């Protein structure tokens, strides 16, 4: 009615004429024209749909990516919907269109990014001539679209890393980032915001200086270039091709890469990948390491109280602060690297043989690795603090026992904690007067209170070269005030 009145009025009919033609009141025509003049939008009167009570359920199921037929079946059987399938189909189509995701074009600078993935290609002969399940590994430079492909028979970490190295050699350099699918070979936990990288792949990426970036789960647009690349090599090279040996496949694939894949006009860029790579991208790649990555095996060990871990019946030191901790070992042909929470804490040359120790003294606390001279000086100063007789006692012990002086002096210093410096000084003076330089002598003097007894100057002291074992018994009696032996 609104549209008809406006159309007739625009054609020059007056209000009275319009009212007669439409058989309605002139006032109604006047009111509608006034509302149109004021800019009021003409709206269709809403009509209730048979699907209205079920729309919330339809939305949930559509987000689960169920088909319109499946949604129709579910709401009919489970919720009593009595309308037609076409009604559901039209509504689901409109709903998905209105909620479709918008994606930006992911542009890359030259040398900035490659994308990698595997594609299953069925069974082909392996190098031994046995039919085995096979995959094609693909790496594509996101800027030039130059692609490298290689046939593999597993997706293990070592294979994955070796394919990367072969691709880098093919390109003649290393990109800044490698965008990977959430492969078990590279990613242990599919979390885009905090990925737990497979330890070996992480070490490999650091060695070559690129940043690995995992794609988001169920987001094919993150890796659209490699998705298309894998599909292309499977359909254009492998599909319908049956060769007799692995060597024939390998040679044919390399020729296909050179003469077809990288020499064609690319469907998206409308340029030839090989030419774009040579002209714009090759020089932007990082240089390749002259020595290939040293692949190793990983294992864990617990750090013992002696600051060592055991591997293959040999022992390797670890900083003492990691005692009791489980650390990770990367074992290669020549080296053993030890990590704590992804941080390298020790490196050792791998020991040949059994029962051997590789020890870095810096892994011990400072007091455990002092030189003999440092220890002698430290203990001498402590005995000097007690007094001159204690210092003389220390020097005589050192002269007599060059290799076993530490324990008696340490014992005397422990006695000082109990009896005090003054008592130890007097005890050393008495022991020296009787020619004894034994810890047990000092201990007996202190415990029996003999340090207060006067020294009998009439007693003949033995020479410094004599040992206590040759001293007359009478001297011991005077030393310890023993009762007369009967």
UniProtKB/TrEMBL annotation:
Signal sequence region: none
One MF term in the entry's GO annotations: nucleic acid binding
InterPro entries given in the database record: Homeodomain-like_sf, Integrase_cat-core, IstA-like_C, RNaseH-like_sf, RNaseH_sf
GO BP term, example: DNA integration
Entries under Pfam families matching the protein: Mu-transpos_C_2, rve
Domain Integrase catalytic: 106-281
Gene3D superfamilies referenced in this protein's UniProt entry, alphabetically: Ribonuclease H-like superfamily/Ribonuclease H
Similarity annotation: Belongs to the transposase IS21/IS408/IS1162 family.
Protein name, as recorded: Transposase
Taxonomic source organism: Maledivibacter halophilus
Lineage of source species: Bacteria, Bacillati, Bacillota, Clostridia, Peptostreptococcales
């Amino acid at each position: 009615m609104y549209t008809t009145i406006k159309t007739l009025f625009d054609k020059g009919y007056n209000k009275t004429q319009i009212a007669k033609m439409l058989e309605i009141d002139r006032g109604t025509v006047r009111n509608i024209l006034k509302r149109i003049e004021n800019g009021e939008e003409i709206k269709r009167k809403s009509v209730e749909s048979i699907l209205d009570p079920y729309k919330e359920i339809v939305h949930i199921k559509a987000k689960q990516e169920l088909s319109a037929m499946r949604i129709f079946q579910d709401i009919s059987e489970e919720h009593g919907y009595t309308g037609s399938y076409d009604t559901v189909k039209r509504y689901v189509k409109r709903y998905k269109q209105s909620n479709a995701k918008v994606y930006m074009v992911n542009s890359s600078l030259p040398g900035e990014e490659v994308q990698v993935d595997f594609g299953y290609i069925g069974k082909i002969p392996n190098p031994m001539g046995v039919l085995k399940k096979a995959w094609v590994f693909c790496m594509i430079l996101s800027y030039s679209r130059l692609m490298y492909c290689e046939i593999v028979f597993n997706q293990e970490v070592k294979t994955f890393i070796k394919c990367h190295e072969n691709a880098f050699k093919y390109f003649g350099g290393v990109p800044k980032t490698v965008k990977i699918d959430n492969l078990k070979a590279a990613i242990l936990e599919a979390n885009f915001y905090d990925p737990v990288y497979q330890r070996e792949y992480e070490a490999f990426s650091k060695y070559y200086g690129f940043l690995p970036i995992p794609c988001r789960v169920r987001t094919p647009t993150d890796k659209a270039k490699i998705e298309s690349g894998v599909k292309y090599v499977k359909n254009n090279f492998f599909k319908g091709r049956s060769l007799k040996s692995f060597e024939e496949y390998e040679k044919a694939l390399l020729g296909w890469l050179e003469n077809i894949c990288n020499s064609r006009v690319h469907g998206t860029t409308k340029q030839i990948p090989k030419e774009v790579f040579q002209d714009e991208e090759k020089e932007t790649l990082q240089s390749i390491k002259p020595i290939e990555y040293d692949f190793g095996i990983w294992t864990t060990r617990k750090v013992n109280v002696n600051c060592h871990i055991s591997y293959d019946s040999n022992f390797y030191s670890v900083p003492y602060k990691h005692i009791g901790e489980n650390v990770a070992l990367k074992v290669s042909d020549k080296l053993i690297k030890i990590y704590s929470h992804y941080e390298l804490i020790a490196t050792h040359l791998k020991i040949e043989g059994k029962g051997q120790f590789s020890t870095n003294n810096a892994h011990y606390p400072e007091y455990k690795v002092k030189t003999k001279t440092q220890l002698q000086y430290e203990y001498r100063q402590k005995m000097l603090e007690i007094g001159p007789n204690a210092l003389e006692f220390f020097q005589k012990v050192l002269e007599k026992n060059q290799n076993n002086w530490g324990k008696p002096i340490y014992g005397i210093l422990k006695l000082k904690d109990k009896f005090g410096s003054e008592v130890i000084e007097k005890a050393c003076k008495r022991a020296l007067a009787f020619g004894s330089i034994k810890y047990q002598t000092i201990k007996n003097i202190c415990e029996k209170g003999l340090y207060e007894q006067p020294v009998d100057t009439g007693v003949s002291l033995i020479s410094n070269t004599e040992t206590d074992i040759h001293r007359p018994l009478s001297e011991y009696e005077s030393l310890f005030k023993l009762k007369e032996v009967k």
